[in-house]
Amino acid sequence: MLCGPKGSEEASNSRCSVCGHNAELFELPGRSEKYCLECSADVATSVLLTAEIDAATMAGQETNALVAEFAQLSSRLLARAQST
Question: On the CB side of 23, how many CA atoms lie within 13 Å of its CA?
C-alpha cells in the first residue's frame, strides 16, 4: 500500500528518531533509524568521535579533549530528545 504525498512509499508523518520532529529524514550507514538534518549530523559526529576515542585509547594517546567534545554532543542530543 502506498502512502504519503502523491503515493510515495514513505509515510508523511515520519518523525526523527531523536527529536521527534516531522521533517525530511536521512539515513546513516549502519543505522536503521532515520534522523532530521540536525540530528543526523550529531549522530554521525558521535559515531566518529567514538571511533576516534577508541583509537586514541588503544594508541595510548590523550583523549580528554575528545571525551569533552563527546560529552557536549551527548548533552545536546539528550536535550533535543527530551524536548519532544
Answer: 16
Say if residues 9 and 31 touch (Cβ distance below 8 Å). no
The DSSP result for 16-84, as a single string, is: -TTT--BS--EE-TT--SEE-HHHHHHHHHHHHHHHHHHHHHHTT---HHHHHHHHHHHHHHHHHHHT-
C-alpha cell at 8: 510515495
- Domain chopping of the chain, boundaries: 5-82
For 62-76, the pLDDT digits (tens) are: 999 999 999 999 999
